[in-house]
Amino acid sequence: TNDATSATNSTNSATSTTSSMPYARVTAVFESIEHESSRLKITALVADFFLHILNTSTPENLTKIVYLFINRLGPDYEPDLELGLGETLLIKAISECYGRPPAKIKKDYQKVGDLGLVAQNSRSGQPTMFKPVALDVDTVFDNLTKIAKSTGKDSQAKKIALIKKMLTACDLKSNEAKFLIRSLEGKLRIGLAEKTVLIGLAQAFVAYEGSSKVGKTIKTANTATAEEVVREAFSQVPNYEIIIKHAYAHGIFNLLDHCQLTPGIPLKPMLAKPTKSISEVLDRFQGEEFTCEYKYDGERAQVHMLSDGLVRIYSRNSEDMSQRYPDLISIAKDFLKKQEGADNNVSSMILDCEAVAWDRVNKKILPFQVLSTRKRKGVDEKDITVHICLFAFDLLYLDNVSLITKSLKERRQVMTENLIPIEGKFQFATAKNSSNLDELQQFLDQSVKDACEGLMVKMLNGNESYYEPSKRSRNWLKLKKDYLAGVGDSLDLVVIGAYIGKGKRTGSYGGFLLASYNSDTGEYETTCKIGTGFSDEDLVQIHAKLHPTEISQPKPYFVYDTTNSNAKPDVWFEPSMIFEVLTADLSLSPIYKAGHQQYGKGISLRFPRFLRIRDDKGIEDGTNSEQVAEFYERQANIN
Ligand code: ATP
Q: Is 295 noted as a catalytic residue in this protein?
């Protein structure tokens, strides 16, 4: 029954049953979601619509529609698929399309606060000489991709031409222009987060299979399992095209048989929960065998070896870093030669590591700050001065076999038996198995002396020690020496505004407004103002990076106190940068907003101090509002 006919393009859409869908159908659903506040109802709207696509169209079309819903154009690991166009360019396109001066558009924008609406309103009243062909999903998707990929000196003009073409085709009576502009800006702001899209997808498949195969109502328990399956599949293979294709062909409940780790597709890394003390660690792992490893302070590197011998390195954020680390590719090629006497070389592999700056003369680890001075683009191996040592802590896949459902003890054994350490280039993470408090304290102190951040404590045996892609798991705890006095960890927060510098800081920003991402609502909720911990160079560098991202209005998805001037910055930014910050503690605040739905008031950081820019994290991967609330709850003395 599953007709897997491939998607047809827009040229024959009029006749084919698998035709591309009118874009207006998609924006109508966006509109309904925008006006809905109940999460359950939003999920149902998403699921119903996806079910409709499954019933009437192809998996290819469903994939494109899912991407439009999450405002992306392909998997995270594929480069150059980002939208997020600046307001100046969009104002120019809207102005040229409707023949209204940019100043007028800008003024409307200041009034309305939403360029999408401004575009839609500019549209009305325009005389239409002829009725343009309606926009369909294929055309919009293809054009958005062209816009994202367009670079070089004519790219601005090309982008504007494509935007104008699409705006002209928007139906006068629909809201297409509004959502098209918002998509181009990089955020739909309809209160829909990716989490909900995944759940909606699972529900749609359950209903689709229920109606097409057995014709019975599907039980909730089934739906919950399907959600778990889709989430798990996505954390191993973060690619909607592959997931939808397999769910369609084999059924949602068989998805995990078909979506497994694949060298060349970076999986979402497993993450750790913070802890504040060794005794907290001992409480957690009471009676279980656990292991401690150095927590190296560098950059996470997922090393893949594909079956054709190609080596690829991916960041924590699934970005391909192979060009940035040509030296690591050479190192990997060396250690991938198996031990002497072994039958054959490694044929395929996924290895989880931390890449750390290494002093080749004194044979020791260098601090993260040194690593961060490495060039990010156009790196030529022979010009490299900051060398890297790769510290491997987990092996997830070897010779066509996924190891993630083996115990950590077994994974380690396979790792050490198959790969050969090379001093100063490729080493295994220093580890110690002990549950003695004094020994652990010594090991923690030693890790810091050896230029590490502290320890990672991990469950060693049984299914609790399986590798859990994308999960922040309590089977991995991080114990950071420097942060034990505060909340136990640093926070990674998004910079959404700044205060103009005075005195010594004239000419740059003097302080910043930070926010946490709310992964349920897609909003950014303010957490604090920060002005401490910056060196003069930091401020110069940050100003240079953030100045071009200034926007004339706060985004409608910024949640901040409009009445208190302290909580309202002088300039706002398009979210693009994450600061890692320390705090003395967290408290409820009348003017900040993180977690405000839960507590009435928001949670804010007291005495925040800047540590560094986190450019290995995506803007939605920082400490989210839910985690801020967790930190707050975990503080010993809440009153
Ligand atoms: P952090 O701010 O602590 O780096 P994070 O959100 O990037 O936070 P966490 O899960 O909190 O990630 O901490 C784990 C990170 O520590 C990993 O992403 C990895 O880059 C690094 N790391 C260093 N040594 C190890 C190790 N032995 N095992 C696992 N991760 C390690």
A: yes
